[in-house]
Amino acid sequence: MSKVLITGCGGFTGRHLADAMAANGHEVHALVHEGENRLIPSAQALHRCDVTDQAALSRLVRTISPDQVVHLAAISFAPHDDLAEMYRTNILGTRNLLGALAQSPIRPEAVLVASSANIYGHRGGRLTEDMPAAPFNDYGVTKATTEIVCGLFSEQLPIILVRPFNYTGLGQSAEFLIPKIVDHARRGIERIELGNIDVERDFSDVRTVIDAYQRLLATPDSQGGVFNVCSGRPIALRQVLNMVGELAGHRFDPISNPAFIRPNEPASLCGDPQRLEHMIGPLRTVPIAQTLKWMLND
């Protein structure tokens, strides 16, 4: 099978993707940042490199000569306090990687780059890929700019852009909403500070997301395309909170923290997966209840 380079492989999504691709017979090369000390058992090789180091990244790309690349390396927590680091990693890191791949003697067969649904901003309703970017935070700005950077290489590299909406699963940091709720339930903590839990959002299971990524990589017609990765079915955050409580036999005492409430937040939003499913077929969805059980029972 093919040789796959996964950047940001030490993160939540990268670890799940590495496991899945290795299980499917691929030779996985995991690129992690220099401070990552955890092993990735499913990876054939572990490479420590800062994506903002252009020279080191170029040497690594030439050494590996990957058949496929999945670019996940990014600072993905929107309230991250070091904006300079976020802009360097998300934008310059992408520019360095694509430049290295374009200059490599053997160019990859497919390059999947993770953008984000954050580029859509505060729009409500059902969001499609044709809508213009209107980010409302710095993370969204970096991802919208990442897409522009990808455009610079559209004639040189077979790039697939994905815009994942919210997704979760085992191993995601408790900085994120659903893992935070699960963590409180597992530790028996009733009081939990949240934002507006009456809004509806689009959530997927990480296993659905990485399956979509793999199928896009295996579909040549997807190259040059932009795809929402989403369920298309919004669910109220209050419903998620209640489901976790019921599954765990736990009572929550939710407290609304104004600091967690975004101004002009839409009551409901979700992505439209129609373009993605037209390209790769129906998504292999996992019901949210199964995802929550997986996270609670580990």
UniProtKB/TrEMBL annotation:
Coiled coil: none
Signal sequence coordinates: none
Gene3D superfamilies registered for this protein in UniProt: NAD(P)-binding Rossmann-like Domain, UDP-galactose 4-epimerase, domain 1
Span of domain Ketoreductase: 2-142
Pathway info: Bacterial outer membrane biogenesis; LPS O-antigen biosynthesis
TM segment ranges: none
Family affiliation: Belongs to the NAD(P)-dependent epimerase/dehydratase family.
Protein known as: GDP-6-deoxy-D-lyxo-4-hexulose reductase
